[in-house]
Structure formats: C-alpha cells, structure tokens
Amino acid sequence: MEKKASEIQKERIKDLEQKASLLLEKCTTVTLASVNENGYPRICTITKQKANSFKDIYFITSKRSALNGKATHFENNPKASVCFNIGGDSVTLIGDIEFIEDKELQDMLWNETDRKFFKKGTDDPTFRLLKFKTIEATFWIEGKFRTVKYKKESHK
Length: 156
Prior knowledge:
This protein is α+β, with helices and mostly antiparallel strands. Helix content is 23%, strand content 42%. Strand 1 (29-35) and strand 2 (41-47) form a beta hairpin.
C-alpha cells in the first residue's frame, strides 16, 4: 500500500527534527535573541546548558541591570529566538523564555566554570536559569528547508 502524502510529510518532518536535535547536541554555544527596552531584537552568543531535543533549551544568565540585559528583556517580554548551525546546516527557533525557580533543577544544571560570574553559585542573587520553549522551527538541513509550528503550552 502506498503512503499518503500527509504520512510522507510527517516522516520528512520527523527526519528533520531528529537531525536538528543531533545538530544541537554538537553545539555548545548558540545565539539567543531577546527584545530590548526599545523594541529592537538583541542577539547574543550564549552557552547551552542542556537541551531536550531542540524544543526545550536551558541557559544560565545573570540579572545585573534593572534597565537592560537579557534577563530584564525576558522579564518584560518572554518572546525569544534561538539559532544554531554547523557547516551549511542551521536551525532557527522562535519561542518563549521561562525563568526556572526550581532549585533542584538549577543545581543539576549548574556548571562550576560559571563560579567566576556567580560567586555563590545558584544562590547568587544575580543567577538566572532560563528555559526556552520552541513554538516554531525553521530547518535548513542537508539542503532541505521546512518551517514547522508547534503547539504553545499554556502555563497555569
């Protein structure tokens, strides 16, 4: 029996998603964009702490300024974008940032090399753990291009 076009499309998307997850595993740094206090995008390079495929990505940052900086940007507007690439393959994600207050998870994702920024570790008052949640992904992998939208989870 021949596969339906919709089944073929689902298989192609699943293949791209798997390749995107493998690509992200190989990346230690990615770019993260926030919306600044003037409504402009602000992109920075940041270390990826952990990722659950490309749909949930964790970052550590600091809250040093009440006026600007990504922590303040995300407090005011959770919209974000993440991009990563190796060679000719790239993935651009759109989603939302959530601040993770769970102490156990913070400690689990803590990297001792960050001690130079956070003298008291996860107890440092400037320490912030961010979780990026993907709602849209644009894949350019092995010459294949596709944009996929994902359901936005409601936070209660």
